[in-house]
Each structure stands twice: as C-alpha cells, then as structure tokens.
Structure prediction request, 676 residues.
Amino acid sequence: MRKFIVTGAIALAALAAGAFAAYGESVSASESEAKPPHRHWHFEGPFGTYDRAAAQRGYQVYHEVCAACHSLSLLAYRNLMELGLNENQVKDLIKDIQVPDLNDDGAPIERPARLSDRFKKPFPNTAAAAAANNGKAPPDLSVIVKAREEGPDYIHALLTGYVPFDKLTPKQIKEFDVTKDDNFNKYFPGHKIGMPPPLADDKVTYVDGTKATTDQEASDVVEFLAWASEPHMEDRKRTGVRVILFLLAMAGLMYAVKRSVWSDKH
Amino acid sequence: MASSHGTPPAFNNKVIAWIDHRLPIFSYIEKEYHTFPTPRNFNYFWNFGAIATVMLVLMIATGVVLATNYTPHTSMAFDSVERIMRDVPSGWLMRYLHMNGASFFFIAVYVHIFRGMYYGSYKAPRELLWILGVIIFLLMMATAFMGYVLPWGQMSFWGATVITNLFSAIPVVGDSIVTWLWGGFAVENPTLNRFYALHYLLPFVIVAVVALHVVALHVHGSNNPLGIDPKGPQDTVPFHPYYTMKDGFGVVVFLIVYAAFVFFSPNMLGDAANYIEANPLVTPTHIVPEWYFLPYYAILRAIPDKLGGVLAMFGAIAVLFVLPWLDTSRVRSCSFRPIYKWFMFVLVIDVVVLGVCGANPPEGWYVPIAQLATVYYFFHFLILLPVLGKIERPRPLPPSIADAVLKKAG
Prediction:
C-alpha cells in the first residue's frame, strides 16, 4: 500500500509539473497588461452548463453589434436551435438576412438565409475586411474563447476595459504613445487596440426585457461565444460523468479481483 | 528464462489445436502471456509498460478515425479539425481523446523511463531492450511533433518553423536539408502533406519496435524492484492471472485521470494560440512546444550558440543510448544504492526545472537557471554516474526475491 501511495504521489507530481508549466505560459503571455478579473460563469466546473437565456441575448448582441465587423464562419444558423430556440424561432431570427449565392446562370445574387447556411460574413474576403479596418482584419469569433488564455474572463475584461483618452494619466500616454484617435484598453497586449469601444449601456434593446448595461451585454456575448467555441461542452461533461463513474466502479472491481488473485502470494 | 517453459500446451479445442499446429500463435500467447514466469515482487511502477501499450493502441484507433475526416491542406486543415469538433458525430470525443492521449502517452512513457533508470533495468543483460526503448521514445517525439502541426494553428506553424530551422545549424548542408524537409522554401502545403503522411506512418513503426522491445524483454524476463535475478519458481508467478490483473487495475486507474482531462479540461495541456489559424505574417509573442518537449526546448535555448544548442538538445537524448555503459555500478536497483538514489530524485527535479524554464521566455533568471540545469543534466549522466558506481558502497542484496518478499510480509 505504501508503494502504491508513493507511485500515486509521483504520478500526481508529474501531472502537477505539466500543469505548472502550462500555468507558466499563461503568466508569461501578459506582462504590462492588467490580469483579467475572474468572473463566475454558468458553464464553469464539471457540471456547468450554458445559460440559454444569456446565450440568446448574446446572439442578439453579436448580431446587432459584433457582426458588423466580425465573422463567425464555423457556425450555421441551424446551430442556434441548440440554444433552446425552435425551428420557427430561428427562421424568424434570420428572416431579414440576405446571403450571397449564385443563380442558375452562375450570376452572383443575394437570397434570404436558410437554416443550413453558415453565418453571413461581414466582408467578402480577408483583404476587404482589412481594407475596411485600417489594414487589419477583425478576427473570426468562432473559437475566440478557446483561442485566448482564460478566454471568457479575458474577453469580458476586454469589452469593458476601455479607458477614454481624457482619463489616461500623462505617464500612460507617454509610455504607450497614445493619441486622441487611439483606443486604449487596459487588457489588450500593448493597450492600443484597433476596435473602438463596441458596447455601451442600452446599445441593444433586449427582447426579454433584461436591462442592457455594458457589463450585461459583455457577459451575454461571452456566454454566446463560449457556446460557439465549444458547442458540445454539455454533452462532453455529461459523458465524462458517466465514463468516470464507470471507470471508478471498474477500478474497484479490478482491485478486488486482483487482491483475491494475489491472496496466496503475500 | 523463455527457453525453460517446458512442453507446448495441448489444446482441447480442435480448431485451436489445428491452427496452432500450423501457426503457433496460441502456444505463443500461452507461453509469453500466461505461464511466462515473472518476478513476484513488482510494484505499481511496473504497470506503465502496459499503460503505454494501451495508450499507443488508443492513439492509433482514434487517429485512424480522425484521419478519415481531416483535410491536409493549409487552407482547409484548421477548419477541418473544427468540423470534426462540431459536425462529425462524436468527433469532439475522438479529437480530445487523441489530443490529450498524446500527453498521457508521454506521461506513461516518462514514468516508464524513470522506472527503468531507478531500478537499473537498462543494465546487462537488458542493454538492447533499453536501447529499443530509447528508439521508441525518439519515434514518439517525431510523431508527436508532426501531429501537433496538423491542426495548422499558430503554434503548429511556428513550432514547425522553429524545429525544422534547427537543421539549418548543420554546417555546409544545413540550408539544403531544411529546404528538403520543407519541400519548398518555407513551411507550406508540401510540409503539411509530408508531416501528415509521416504522422500516419510512424505509429506503425513504433508498433514494430514495441514488438522487438517485448521480444527482447521476454529473453531474460523483467527486472524487478530488488534488481536481482529470480533464482527459481519460488521467486516468480505466472504472468496470468497475477500481472494481467495488476496491470488491468493500473490501466483503469490511469484512464480515470486521463478521462478527467479529456472530459472536463480538454484544453488545459494545450496552448490557446493553437486555436488561432496559422498565419505566416504574425509571429506569436512566445513560441512554446507542447509540455512534454519543454525540458529539451530549455536545453536548446540554454546554449547561446545555435549549433551548440541543437547538439545539446540531441545530446540530451543521445546520452540515454549509452546509459548502460555510463553506469559502472554492479547493483541494479536504487533501493540498494544509498547515494545514487537521491541523485535520481535530483535528476527528476532538474528535468522539471528545465521544463518550467522551457515554458517561460528566455529572459531574466530563467536563462542562468536553465543553463545550470542543463549543465547538471549532463553532469549527472557523464560524470556522476560513472564515478559514483566506483565509489558508492551499495547495501547488501537479499539472497532471493522470495526471501525478501516473505520477510517483508512477516
């Protein structure tokens, strides 16, 4: 038994070393920037799920605000049914969206979006997106929450972390070479971010009557984007609980058999 | 040991007997995995060979399924992986099993290597067994590196760029070799294509070398925590059911930890930047390899000269090939080596320190710490090991395995 504990301790130490190394990376990723404060998310932890109402509101924020510049190319409109909406509700949501297509003669046309269409891109291609945004294309948001360390906290902090030029200290202005036309963000690496503050109080009018503060809009859109990044998370966690319960029972059984097999050798 | 198993077993089932008379696979299984005499005193460290085998099979199984849905083209690879994650039924499961499986394969193999070093399993007559193991380790590193390139994220691309560029340090022919590896003048579609082909090929080469590893193992049988040879039947037990059960239990416990990562924290061991599609025009702030390469990455960067760094990095693995001859002690197990035992733990700490240095940017204190840890790594193998074997006074070895086991049980 003692040896078993030693083995376990060493295996744990190896895991901890790996985890520590991974942590080391995340620390080194942000140097002069403030660390995004940790917020509680509905989808956290081994049993966390997506807050459907928040994610639906988040879609509204994405559609009315973010979608003007950011694509969400890996998602199809049909995926919205996973957020607790039925087919007719989703059809109603997309009824005004026109998507590019080719007609039978091969000529480019616009037609109403279908459920099977991928989310409409705001720009026809990356070059056009860059040209319209001071030379740098706004990133696609499909996996953005997974593509940043502490993604949900970081994106919420970024969306709410703008500091107006007249609130900056002279030291900050000098150190980061900020002008009146720059957008200063506490959390963005290098602080000067191309994106102007996208959210404001009452920027959207929520259909469910929730008060649209900047903070609320940011949390809702993060909930939506977290789902977009990892749409099978709930299925994954549910499966995980079953798999681990099965393996625990199996381990108990194996240990019992192992002990009885070995009983004549000790 | 293998030659002393007695007569081939008689099979009652006529079909099995008919087949076995012509192709003795059942005799082989009977001899090598049933009656095979195995030291009776293994501790749980001896599970990790079986665990590594299970991980290898799991990686190949999930990998073949992933390959049927993956597109090896620079413009489609990233999206095809995300398509697997979203639209392929259970695709997310296959992908996360495979992605975390690489990490857990390395965990199993690192514990297995530590076991071999601590208990002196590499010493005569098991030198070739050990060398085959180091070859498997090298093949695993190549396979894992090329697999990490396939999702075509930022770390895939820049990791591939950094590692393939290492070969340019070779004098005279270096640049030509890099062009040859890339299949062009940059990491591009030909590079991705050949990495995909090799990533699919090498695991089967690993299977072949694992087979040789097992053949070599079964010539003299396993080492054991005491490091002394079994002297008779009282020192051994048949492999089945004793070790099939014990390995089975160990495998399931290992799978629990693995499943916890796959289902509840599948991206913890990876780098967030690999969810950004590869962009040759944007270099990430810190290019880091996967965690299992970090100690070697630290050694590479510890040497201020490019060629020197590359040589040190490959030397760190090359030194393992000659380990059986660097160790001059006649005692196998560290249990009876009062001084070397502690240096084994210092080596483990040294490798962890190197790993932490590899994860962090090479600035400030990380530079001298990584350099010190690199020097210590080579000091351990090249100086400490040969010298200590001569001057250390090992504790007396027990007369036999049975004697030691029964004394301990009281």
Remarks:
- The beta strands of chain B are 37-39, 236-238.
- The longest strand of chain B covers residues 37-39.
